[in-house]
Amino acid sequence: MESRVASPGIIRCGTVLAPDFEAALADYRDCLGLPVVEDGRIPPDLARSWGAPAQVGCRFALLKAGRGFLRLVGGSPLPEGFRPLASFGWAAFEMSVRDSFALHARLEGSAFSVLGAPKLVPGFTNFIPFQVAGRSGEVLYLNTVLESRMAGLDLPVAQAEVEAMFIAVLAAEDRARAVHFHVEALGFEQGETFRFPYSMINMSFGLPETHETDVSMTRVGRTPACEIDQYPEAAIHRPRSAGELPPGNSLVSFAHPDLDAVRAPFIEPPTPRDGPLYGGARVATVIGPADERIELIECG
After folding, report:
1. Residue 72 and residue 139: Cα distance in Å, rounded?
2. N or C: which end of the chain has fewer CB within 10 A?
3. pTM of full prediction above 0.85
4. What is the sign, positive or negative, of the torsion defined by CA atoms of 100, 104, 107, 112?
5. Across the chain, what does the average pLDDT equal?
6. Coil, strand or helix at 16
7. CB-hemisphere CA count at 13 Å for 277?
């Protein structure tokens, strides 16, 4: 068991709400090759800490992804009106992979639907990304990092076929407000802001290929944390089943140096938690301005 998380700002885990739990588990275990390190049922105090009392007793599986984790939690069928990359909240989990082209070929015919094939992004030469949607409505950005150092950030070069999430992608109704919250309330640093044609957003909303999106980064030192995207007016507030986590990309867990310094209300007071993810640290969850659930794991 890991006793504590050493680096503030590191993304420890991304959580996906999985209506077809067994099938989703097979996808991540067999297609992406992520081993299960813990499984069981969601206890009442953890569900309450997420503001999701209906998750009590739901199955979960914690899978190891490089230095971090990916967690599946059982839930209700996807609500009417939900589709990937069309609503506010956590839009995607960005993970480092060894070879985008080889993994793209391997996922052909799997339950992971390819949204965009591997390619260089205009203006960015550090990585080769491709994007997939899973059966639970979640989106993964899978990137081969060619050069780790870029403007203000260090990107992780994968040592395994699929590594930990290193950027959490947030779809914001008000990008500036979301950035302010992550900086002032949570203690992240504001990074660079970019403006470019964002193919995933343009495709999702039927916008012209030349339509540009404002994207801001948050970080801790040179460690990336979030990509905060200004979503179009056509985006909706994410529908969800009563008392459950949001569907798709549900929750992101970050290492944080001092929960007493957080200037945002916790859903429940910080509580020590055991297990491979938490390692005995204090843990608490806040809700951001895009209705994103942010689980903070104290590492001080």
Report:
1. 13
2. N
3. yes
4. positive
5. 94
6. strand
7. 28
